[in-house]
Amino acid sequence: MVFTSNELALAAHRSIGRVYYWFPDMPSVVGALAERAAHRLGVLFEGLLAYDQSAPTPLILAETVATLCRHIDENPSTVALCLSGNGLLDYGACMRESIVATAGILLRERIPDIDDAEVELVSRTAVGIALGMLRAYLYADAARRALLQQELVYVLSSWLYSRYPRT
Hints:
It is a single chain. This protein is mostly helical. 74% of the residues lie in helices and 0% in strands. It contains 8 helices and no strands. It starts with a helix and ends with a helix.
């Protein structure tokens, strides 16, 4: 969705001058919105990190995926932002990095002796798989969304089990 600074000022009940007082240009506005969304996502993931350590990995993944899907239901731009751009216009980098960091924390807790390079690789791969499937989730009807959510748990669980059979 494209919007102008005038539309933003109108929606925020502020003057256009006030908008430009706080933000020098529209990319700065979008960047600030993405950072705010990343913060909300980070808070959401903090709750996920307080799980029962004895729970099986597929159960933890199911709760994580369900939480992420609920967030996407309420904030559909999350997936698009996470998959957007690169370089200076990669507005979703902060959100994507928040998800990767959470995946890394969960991975380290499940596999304590894993080295940093492997955590980075596996976390980014898992997040890439998840975002690809969540893109399909975003455009699906309610019945299909439930199937895609379940399938994402199966894909991640089986992939992780094939790498780490003891988890």
